[in-house]
Design a protein that fits this description.
The protein is of the alpha/beta class and 297 residues long. It has 9 helices and 12 strands. The chain has a single domain, classed as Rossmann fold (3-Layer(aba) Sandwich). It is 36% helix and 15% strand. The protein has a 6-stranded parallel beta sheet with strand order 2-1-3-4-5-8, sandwiched between helices. It has a two-stranded parallel ribbon with strand order 6-10. It is globular.
Length: 297
């Protein structure tokens, strides 16, 4: 007898990370998101229209409509640290005030939240940060994430929510990779850092973590879970690996040393992974993932 799938609703379906993991999640979960129905503008003046699930954190919460689900994955946010610096009030409204309203609403419905957070909540440079390491955020985005982590753990301690604190998830749409591509196409040396280290998650690693956390754990209390690859690689080494796999030889690199901490927070990804040591977190798996997904020239 086939067991029923866990109902998972994702809020913020335009998130690049979510777009990368959406096909895999659709196989594992009874999945819905805020792109599964037409935008609200298409439903205007239609009587008895189905509700839209497009939650806009910059709109009044009275307009929000949520489907029934067991878990709600919140991607909706202002995720650009630089924009958070230049627009602190607007970003705080979206990332903190409205997100708290949303989590309160989900909690009242009896749902459990998966809240993606970031290693940027740490600003000093240690080899590995534990789930309970003291927070020390620098920039506005990092401070907003840290405030949400503390609020969930204090105000919703018994709700069974999950704060999923992540390192960078590898994607061909990652900003640093898109910059490399622009520099390559323009015929200028690709500027890469020797000392900025990544512990890149693959989409498959994140998918497995979400499946595990929603299916195996039944938390009585809210938890912070660190998720990270179990290896580190510099931008310089990663760039050379990528273009070797792509069979692109006419590319030049300018290797530089850069600060590992910026005004917006920690750059060096260094979280202690709280989940089992799955192969999806290994360096071999990551390199094979690149070989399977990168376009060959």
């Amino acid at each position: 007898m086939e067991t029923s799938k866990i109902r998972l609703h994702s809020i913020g379906a335009r998130s690049l990370i979510y777009q990368d993991i959406r096909p895999g999640l659709a196989k594992q979960f009874d999945l819905s998101d805020d792109d599964t129905l037409p935008p609200a503008s298409e439903l205007t003046n239609k009587k008895n229209s189905a509700p839209t699930y497009q939650i806009r954190l910059d709109k009044p919460s009275k307009d929000w409509v949520l489907p029934k689900a067991e878990f709600y994955l919140i991607w909706a946010a202002q995720t650009n640290p630089n924009l958070c610096e230049t627009n602190p009030l607007e970003s705080y409204t979206i990332n903190v005030i409205k997100t708290k309203e949303l989590i309160d609403l989900i909690s009242k419905k009896g749902g459990r939240v998966i809240y993606p957070s970031s290693n940027l909540v740490f600003s000093h440079d240690q080899p590995l940060y534990q789930c309970n390491s003291p927070l020390n955020p620098l920039g506005q985005y990092a401070k907003q994430k840290a405030e949400m982590e503390r609020w969930i753990m204090n105000e919703h301690a018994k709700s069974g929510h999950i704060v999923l604190r992540m390192t960078k998830v590898w994607s061909q749409r990652a900003k640093f990779y898109l910059r490399w591509e622009r520099e390559r196409v323009d015929g200028i040396p690709i500027k890469v850092s020797r000392n900025r280290l990544l512990s890149p998650l693959t989409p498959l690693g994140l998918e497995r973590a979400l499946t595990f956390l929603t299916g195996k754990f039944h938390f009585d209390r809210s938890q912070i879970i660190n998720i990270s690859a179990n290896f580190s690689i510099s931008q310089a080494v990663l760039a050379r690996e990528i273009y070797k796999i792509r069979n692109i030889n006419d590319v030049f690199f300018e290797e530089v040393d850069e600060p590992t901490t910026s005004k917006t927070g920690l750059i060096h990804n260094s979280l202690h992974n709280c989940l089992p040591d799955w192969e999806e977190f290994s360096e071999d798996f990551f390199r094979n993932h690149l070989k399977l997904t990168l376009p060959i020239q």
